[in-house]
Fold Phosphatidylinositol transfer protein SFH5.
Amino acid sequence: MSTQPSDNAEPGTTPAAVSTDAGNENTPTVTGSEPDAAKHTEEEPKVVNPTEPQPTAPVDNEPKPAAAPAQDTDSPADVKDSVSTTAGELPPLVQLWKAAEGHPHFEIWGVPLSDPERHIPTQIIFQKFLNANDGQVEKAKDQLLKTLDWRQKTQPQQLLRKMFSKAKFDGLGYVTTYTAGDEPAVDEPEQKEVFTWNLYGSVKSLDETFGNLQEFVEWRVALMELGLMEINIGGAIKPITADYDPYKMTQVHDYKGISFLRQTDVAKAASKECIKVLGDNYPELLKEKFFLNIPAIMGFFYGLMKMFVSKKTLNKFHPMSSGTNLAKEFVNTKVDGLGDKLPAEYGGKGADLKTLGKAPIVQ
């Protein structure tokens, strides 16, 4: 299955090489020694043309929710004309819908699935699965069904209400949304930028934070679901195209305070599992990815990435030796003055992450 890379760089270790596979949609696999060959060559394959929290996924013993109501828009998506098909063959999005209709779990990313010909949010989700698989319907269908299986088993939206250990996860990750003007642009993707922040320098003990693999992965998934709530695909009224997909997030990994000589097996296992889980189940959600406070010598490893990924994919990864320069990277964005809105420690003039950001619940 050709999907986007996962959303997580290995915490507490040296970023070395990229394992590609999509939100996200997405990061180098960190080994601390030599780079692993990438399983795929494209993080975001060719695209085929075709905060209000959303409803949580039903638990296994609950009846399947009713399909989401059709959305009438001024310019409804014409699914049948959005892709080329051979004579007598159903359009790709319709094929994905027919496959999903037979599954007992009827939700992805907080969106109750419905007929993509009339429901823009479902169309966007299906299109992302197609985009992540070069438009190959069977591969997209396989990934979609496996994602539905995983969400039925894991119940990711229930993790938004789970209490995580404060000692292990407090301050480790945040989601922030920056909007144009003073109004919260909940339903207009062109008026906001969503960031997920992973602050691995906040880890007090690698073994304690990453030792319980399931707990760490659940925490990381909860952070991803928070980001999706801010993106708000469920409120979308515009279909995505080859040149238009604003339903993505910027990811920042800050390694300040981490010794790149520190490596543990549990941290590596946590990174590997997150890469797989996020890569398989959150395709086409990454806009840009920044690796901050990386020693200058680490530029050598990023040079090696050219051996494993396309230029298009590589251009999404931005290693930076100083986190204070991050604000300068957002000169031309859909949110005017975005750089100034970032926290001061990242070169902006805005509130710090603990004040402004959202995070999984800890106690």
In short: The chain has two domains: 90-151, 155-354. Residues 213-231 form the longest helix (19 residues). The beta strands are 15-18, 28-30, 107-108, 111-112, 173-179, 192-199, 249-254, 286-292, 317-319.
